[in-house]
Amino acid sequence: MTDATENDLGPLTWVKSEIDQALSRALEAIEQAASSEDERSSRLQFAQSHLHQARGALSIIGLDGLTQFTDGLDKLLGELAREEIALSEAVADVCRRSIAATGNYLDELSHGAPDQPLRLAQLHARIAMARGAEPPAEGDLFFPDLGTRIPRRPTPDVLDTAEEMRLLRAMRIRFQQGLLTWMRKADDPTGARMMCEAVAGIESRQHQQQARAFWLSAAAFCEVLAEGHVPV
Fold first, then answer.
1. Cα 117 to Cα 140: distance, rounded to the nearest angstrom
2. Four-residue CA torsion sign, 40, 42, 46, 52
3. Does some domain include residue 232?
4. Domain range for 94
5. Does one domain contain both 44 and 107?
6. Which of 11, 134, 210, 227 is the most buried (most CB within 10 A)?
7. Is 69 within 8 Å of 102 (Cβ atoms)?
8. Could you read off the pLDDT of 84-133 as tens digits, one per residue?
9. Longest dimension (CA), the chain
């Protein structure tokens, strides 16, 4: 679920009240645990149980990024309940903010906002820090809609087999030259751009949508590589 539109809000509408209730109970249990050491472990376990219910509902309705986000919080609450991590005020604040962010995110979705879980990346990183875990990757919350249809374009001209093979062979050689250039000097975008041109050329000869989707994805990766957005 990438764009929360009128057509795909149905599943969220059906379960939102239950999710809100589970989040509210989880937050209440966290507040009780933070305010008193009495039965702290059981209260944190109670909070985790309710958050786990909310996480399950999010998974069922296809909010993969938000599910990933709440999974980190679920693990944090479990570690707190087992007293593997101390419930400091700073950690309690991360829990509060994370639950509030989950509820706010769902409210925004229900009012038509796009499903863009990367907005939660900073808080997602704070959850990992509270757990003493490695910082999550930047793309940890990136779940693009793979069901989106790619734009139509005119069907490529039909060539005889020999001519088609000649064109594809030339593009393959171009790609290999670009790859070799990139391997020799990764910080120079020239090689990546050569690969991108070759891949785009191959895509232009495709007739099937699935084949086009593959080559367009490959071209996009080469573009990102050329722009220096992928560490090498």
1. 10
2. positive
3. no
4. 6-141
5. yes
6. 11
7. yes
8. 999 999 999 999 999 999 999 999 999 999 999 999 999 999 999 999 99
9. 80
